[in-house]
Amino acid sequence: MTKPVELPQGTLEMLILKAVSLGPLHGYGILLRIQQISGERLEILQGSFYTAIYRIEHRGWIKGEWGESENNRRARFYSLTATGARQLKAETAKWTDMTAVVAGILDKKAEER
Amino acid sequence: MSLLAAIRKLRHSMAPRTHSDVEEEFRSTLDAYQEDLVRQGLPVEEARRKARIDLGQPAAQNETYRKAIGLRLFDELGGDIRYGLRGLRRNPGFAAVAVLSLALGIGATTAMFSLIYAVLLHPFPYADADRIVNLFGIDDTATDAGTSFIWTSLSKADLDDLGRAAPVDSVLGFNPTQMEITGGAFPEEIAGTYLTENAGTFFGVRPLLGRNLEPSDAENGGHSVVVLNYRLWQRHFGGDSHVIGQTLELNHAPYTIIGVMPRSFAFNDMTDVGDVYLPATLMQHVPGVTVPYYLAWIKLRPHVTPAAAHAVIEPIVKRTIGRLPDHLHIGLQPIIWVFRENIGHTLTLLLAGVVLLLIIGCANCSILLLARGRTRQHELAIRSAIGASRWRIVRQLLVEAIVISCTGAVLGVAVSYWLAKLPMALSPDSFPAESFIRLPLRPAQPAAFR
Fold it and tell me: For the complex shown, is ipTM > 0.85?
C-alpha cells in the first residue's frame, strides 16, 4: 500500500471542483471519486470535507440539486457552475505554475550539490 | 421597495439552505457510507457507529454549515441577545429599574434637545436665516431691554441704498398694518403685511399653494394680489385647496389670491404675524399714506461679520435719517436674538438639568449592573469552567448591557415625543411662532412639507 498524502490548506476545494467537473455527484460520491482517482492515497478529514463543499457552494462555484442516487436514495447532486469552471481553470494554472517553480528549485539544488 | 428586495437577496445569499435541507443531505451521505461499511463486512451497529465517528452527528451538521458560510458570529450574537433577554425576564425588577432610569434620562434629554434645536438652532424656515438681521435703533438710556429697541423706518430709496452696500445680500422691506376683510356679513379685522416684491426670493420658502410675491407684482403701480398665511387660510377658507385665483376683499378693494404659505411660515413675531401679505408698491394707493415707510430685514452676504456689516450700514442709515440723538445708535441683530435673549438661558439651564438626569440614570444603571455581576459570579465561573473564553464572557455581558440600553433608548425616544411638546403647551408665547417642535429626525426638510 502506498503512503497516504496530506493535503495542503485550500487544495481540497480545488479537488472538489475537479471531481464535480467530470459530472454531477453527491457529496459521498465526490469523496469516493477523489479517493479513487488518487489511488486511495488521500486521507480526507471528514469534517473539513463538508465544510469545503458548503463554502464553495455558498460562493456559487458549485450548485446543488436534489435527485435520485444510483441505489434509489434521495441525494443532493452538485454540478460545476460557470464561475466554478473559471475558478477551477485559474486554480489549476496557479497550482501548475507553483509546483513547477517549486519543483524546479528543489531539483536544481539536488543537481548542484 | 428596492431596499427590501436587496435585504431579501442578501438574506438569501447569506443563508440559502434550511436546517432540514442540510441535515437530510448529511443523513443520505451517512447512510451511503454506512452501507459501504456493511458491505465491507462490518456488523450494522458497528458500521452505524463508525460512520458517525468518521463523519459526525447529523444534528450538529447545520452548525458546521453555518460556520462554513461565515454565519457563526451572527448565531452566537443572536444567542447572546436571546440569553440576555431571558435573563432580563427572569429578573423583572432589575430590568424595569435599569430600563426606566435610562429611558427617563434619554427621553428628557432628547426632548430638551429637540426643543433647543427647534427654538434656538433652527427656528425659522427662511433660507439662510442665520444671516438675516434686524435693523434697530438702540436706546442706550432705556433700562428695560424690551423698550431699548426702536424699529428704524426707512424709505424705499433707503432700502435700495442698503441693498447696494457691499456686505448686504438682499434687503426685505415690510410694513405691518391692520386691515379688514370686507364683503361679508361682518368685517373681520386681520393683520396685513406689505412686503417688498423680492419677498419670494428673500425668504426662499416654497408656498404651500400657488406662488409667493414676485418682482413683477410691482409693475403698473402694483398688482392687486395677496398671499395668505396658513392660519388665515385655515380660519377663513377652511383649508380650501382651490382658493388660488379667488378674490378676497380687503378694505373694500378686491385682491386676487395667488398663494398660501406653509404652516411654518409666520412672518414675523416681533411686530405682528401677518394674516395676509401684499405687494408693498400698493402702499402708494393707501389713503393717508404720503411716503410709504418700511421696516427692514437685511440678509448679509456669507462670511460677513456683524461688525463689518455694522460699519458699512450705520453711515448709510445715518445719512438718510439725519443726525441721531446721542443716546441712540444703530444696531444689527440676528433675528433669532430676541428668543435667544428671552428663553435661551432658561433652556440652557433646563438642558443642564436633564443632562444631569441622564448621568444619574447611567450611574444608576451601572451600579445595578455591578451589583448583578456579583450575584452572577457563580454562573460565570461555570461558563468559564466548561470552556467559554474570557472574550466570549465579556461579549455576553456587553450584549446584555446593550440590550438594556437599547430598550431604554427606544422607550426614551418614545417618551420624548410627548415631552417635547410640553414646554410649548405650557408657555406658547415664549417660542417663535415658526418653530414647530418635533424630534429632529431629519436635519433638513423642504419647508413646504413641514
Answer: no
